[in-house]
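Example record

One chain of 711 residues, shown exactly as stored in the release files.
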Amino acid sequence: MRRLALLVPMVLVPSIARAETAGAQVEESAELYSCKTNPSDVVMSFKPDMEIKDLVAWAIGFTCKPFMLAPNVVATGRKVTLIAPQKMTRTEAYSMFLAALSTVGLTVVPKGKGYRIVESATAKTQPLPLYNKTAPADNDQLVRYVVRPSFTRAETLQKAFMTMRSDAGDVQILGSIVLVTDYGSSVRAMMQLGKLIDVPEGTDAIYTLQLKHAEASKLMPKLEGMLGIAAGPGAKPGAETAQSTGSLAVPSKLMVDERTNTLIIAGTEAAFQRVQALVDRLDIALDIEGGASIHVYKLSHGIAPDLAAVLTAVVQGPGKTAPASGQAAGPQPSVPLDTKEPRVSGEVRVIAEAASNSLIVLSSGRDFLAIKEIIKQLDEPRRQVYIEGMIVEVQLSNDQETGVSAHGFLPGSGSSVLLGGLQQGNNGTSSLDVKSLANSTGLVTGVLSSATTTIMGTTIPSYGALLTAIATKTNSNVMSLPSIIAVDNQLTHLTIGTNIPYKRGVSYGGLNGTTPTGSTTVNIEREPLELKLDIKPHISPDGSVLLEIDHAAKELGETGGELGPTWTTRELKGQVVVPDQQTVVIGGLISTKEYVSKSQIPILGDIPVLGGLFRHTYKQKRKSNMVILLTPYIVRDQLDIEAIRAKRMAQTQEFMRSFSTLESMKYQPKIDYARKRGLIEEINRSVQSVEEDRAALEELRKPRAIKEGAI
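Predicted structure tokens for this chain:
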């Protein structure tokens, strides 16, 4: 159900109206829609951001007219702010009211004895006040005006009026008349222009000429100087004017409407045609003068998204942010690129096209030439560095274990026996268990009785003595030779390794309801053992290299036992400066560990010489040495790349020769020399680039699109 808000004024007696005048601040009170019938000055004292219904309530106070507002107008939430330094008449206040409505796209349409507030865009379909000979009021009230030209054509008037109409206005031709729908202030301006245009042939008339490419304000002084209308920048000393010569081919006056970029010409038709001929020659599309054009620059070495971000920051200046993706950047201030080069003077937008690694630049030709110089400097070949690494780790271990295991029995009274002896050692050898000899390692010597004795259901030799001695030595030499080639100021990551499975635990069935009771499940996990090397090089002009290094390695340690395998880890982070082709040690670790464990029979084990028969000794020694070395090679040209390739291939072939089945395998890459660029081609490319830049600069100096000849 549609609803309409009707605001009706209410006349108050003078005693009630004494509080405020009709222009006082509107408040929600009994005097909201009151009005004063006696004429008086109107005062405005509004708060900022006043709603439309409050603005209408204020107008009721001095017009005493009812107003109708549609719900969709109120629901838009449009607000205005009115500020007036002094009082004004009722007529001036009403003009201010109409102007405030027009700023938010609304206008007033008479409806019976009241007024209806509608959208300005749709008001032209409403019954508006019609004027023919009398001029409408000079305000923002939408009206219709009928013009019947006496001398000129209706199409000429329509073309002239269209350059002056507002956004809510409309100009139509109905037979031989022109129907204008617009604000009263715009119609009055059109009437003045129409009087100058609708004149007899041979007299001065008013013509309009809208420019498409050039700026009217910049072109007008040149026209005045060439035609001798005024002493413009292009006028020569002593130039004759149209008034002095009486020539009909020279306009009497030129004006500019900057809002529509239109020339207003006062003169005869011959003068207008002469100006139009000049404008046709000069108002041409020149890419170097302005207007966004699309330029594509294909990068050779740089990365398009990275360069686009840098160029956007340059053209926008400090403190600006890049536009969102898909949106054009607004006009930016001029940014000096170089004291000897042209500056960016217009709107510039840079878009990265990652698929072809190209930059799409939306700018004028002059701005593109300035940006192109920056792109060339940033799109230089990136320097590279080849890094050879050597990670050497040597581990030595020496374990010694000696001990005696002995026991003996003597018959006692009755069925009892006397038991004594020594049972020690970590190698599992025991004189009480003959089966332990099968699993013994190292030297085992001694004597065991063939007679046996049963104690608590266990059969053991009646007496025995065993001497064990074992020495275990381990020597491991681990060498890793990672090599990597990295781009200057770019992080390079290298990972080499494998993973090992190990038993993490055992799950028994019947506990969670998903596995049968009595079953067992072995949980297997895998641990990655990797060598990681992250390097970010920074090549300095003096030939040294700053290396940011992050190295981590994990290797398998001791295996076996109930707890499963172990692994060792090492990690190194840091920075180091290395001269070109020099080797530097960036890390090293030397460790020595000795462990001695003794177990003995008290007192007897401390006896010199003979005490060795009553004690067990375990000695363990561990030594490790780990060194990390790096050697950088700065790559300056293709010859360095070829030397690196030859070196690596020689090392690979030497490794392959160690296997008899691989002696005949050799790797030789296929090279397509038609695609390689030598010294002559590099010179040719440089010459072509210079010629292209020279041709672009020539385009700036001579606008070849202007035709030559008499006008």
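Notes: The first strand starts at residue 5 and ends at 7.
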